[in-house]
Write a structure and sequence with these properties.
By secondary structure, the protein is of the alpha+beta class. The protein has eleven helices and 14 strands. A hairpin with a 2-residue loop joins strand 4 and strand 5. The radius of gyration is 18 Å and the shape is globular. Bound molecules: flavin-adenine dinucleotide (FAD).
Amino acid sequence: MIPAEFDYRRAGSVDEAVELLGSAEDAKLLAGGHSLIPLLRLRFARLSLLVDIGQLDELRYVRRDGDRIAIGALTRHADLAQDPVLLASCAPLADAAAHVGDPQVRHRGTIGGSVAHGDPVGDLGTILLTLDADLVVVGPDGQRLIPVGQFFTGMFQTALGPQEVLTEIRVPEIAAGTYLKFVRRAQDWATVGVAAARVDGRVQVGLTSMGATPLRAHGVEEAVAAGAAPAEAAARTAEGTEPPSDASASAEYRAHLAEVLVRRALAQV
Ligand code: FAD
């Protein structure tokens, strides 16, 4: 289908993007376009102005910054997947990015777009939640930091204001971690995904497609901290989750799958 009519402007800087977002009602940013363009074409989304930030190469980087790793919001999945800093010090993020969609999606889609989209089936949000990442956003009032635990507010909803641009994601360096993704077919979205990582000596666990947002498996984390073995801790995976039933899987099957993947992930960290 063809999208409804909209104006298009290309931003030359983050500040210009913020200004342009404020210049029209229903303005939206365009990064890699791999979530937004399909929505526009299907007319699930309509907007008056598309603000293209895809040329802002200064937002494409991965670098060490003190004890954190700073990732520019426009860094593409394919670049995350082979980044030497991430492979050495935050492997689950590189690994998850390597399994996002197909090569075309990975060479256009960006980490910022993935997170800002707030899709509960997205892989990267779960990793960031598991790692207690911080998100740097710039808006009309300047820059602010949003802890990822406050970022995902509902299905396809985030704490980003209408005039805010996500510019950077900060993650800790970790010694061990993994992301296990169960898919029905190769290159598919996650039926269920599980992230586990050792962050500051504590095991943290995140879940994909087990609710309206990425979730932390707090029951599992508590059990591990209390000394439970992987199978015993994994038995608490479904606590606080609301897995959907859809064409890929029933809620019961998702809960079972998540428990199995949590058990395997815990054995790796
Ligand atoms: P866009 O589509 O450009 O934007 C998405 C949303 O984020 C828009 O609302 C936009 O306004 C907003 N936005 C973008 N950048 C910013 C920013 N810097 N600040 C604030 N708001 C911003 N994802 C997975 O996780 N796993 C998968 O297996 C997977 N498979 C896919 C398969 C296919 C066939 C397709 C088309 C997509 C798939 N995706 C998957 C989604 C993919 O990862 C997208 O690239 C990503 O979700 C969105 O990134 P983008 O850069 O394309 O964002």
